[in-house]
Amino acid sequence: MDINISDVASQCINEINKKIKNLKNLNIIVAGKTGVGKSTLINYIFREQLAETGIGKPVTQHIQKITKKDIPLTIYDTKGLELGRDTQKQIKSEIIDKIKEGLYAKDENKCIHCIWYCINTASDRIEEDEIEWIKEFTEDNKDTQVPIILVLTKSFSKAKAKEFKNYIDSLNLHVCAIVPVLAMDYEIDDDYTAKAYGGEELIEIMGELLGEELIPTLQNVQKAAIKQKIKYARGIVATTVTATFAEGFAPVPFADAALLVPTQVTMIASITVAFGLKVDKGIITSFITSILGTAGATIAGRTIVSNIFKLLPGVGTIVGGMISGGTAAVITTALGEAYIKLMEKMCLGEIKAVDLSSKEAMTEMKDIFKKELKKKQ
User: Which CATH number fits domain 24-221: 3.30.450.40, 3.20.170.30, 3.40.50.300, 3.40.50.150?
Assistant: First the structure.
């Protein structure tokens, strides 16, 4: 059985688009006083600089809706919490109404899934009216039970942020977590710059609070926690291998190695969606070509196996020209890990999409795959 690299790349792109289309929409309310750094926080956590798309569409007098095309995420940004007591009550009422509106719709895509209340750590204090507002809101939220996270923004000093967190924790507010965050690098002086942090913790907590259906969306839209993406992607690889080979994949002749391709296409598509990168057919083609070690458009199944085994002779158990379940699992795992490494390097800017077809980049991808094969044998 032959495999056409162009066709496989097209299958990957189609599967990626299908999975993106099926992602649930994640809806978050971000509240806090003006100047606490909500926009900076949003752009630190989420890809595509969401908060820079404009002021947003007003949905109530004090709430604006921020969205961007092809991003399964909606941010509801509240305004004016530093205003008078009557306005604060109105804002609280508007948020509760928005939460109930989502619940009554009985549509996961319209429900409010989480609330971030932002407090400026640099101010060194939380005002009494702010404490009272949070207490009243959490009381009103008892029936709807939307998770609330207090985000301590502008946490330039970790020691000070920890002290501030302990103080707020002592107030016994009914919130799910308190997370100090520095949303962008901050230059203290010429010799020291405080690096952005807190994104990994915030995303990890979000992952624990959200339902399973929203985890793929969370990983797709977030950019602040690469380690979380990698962990999630490795789960995809493990699930793929387990589901396909747990009970022993029926031995496949070398010539029919292409039969394994649909499983691996789905795996690669799922990993791509998790990383939230814009991947085109050229990127997939370069990756496959570098692994298979050929520039040909169509390759026989026997050649596929031969080229892979040249990277590591004797991998797995080979009997009578067949690919055993164990060998297929090793190859699939190594393929998944190599693709994860490629996505990681692209996220970190270590490999650029325009350079993937270069000899150097393709050699690097092949070396990564070979290294993963050795680790899995």
Answer: 3.40.50.300
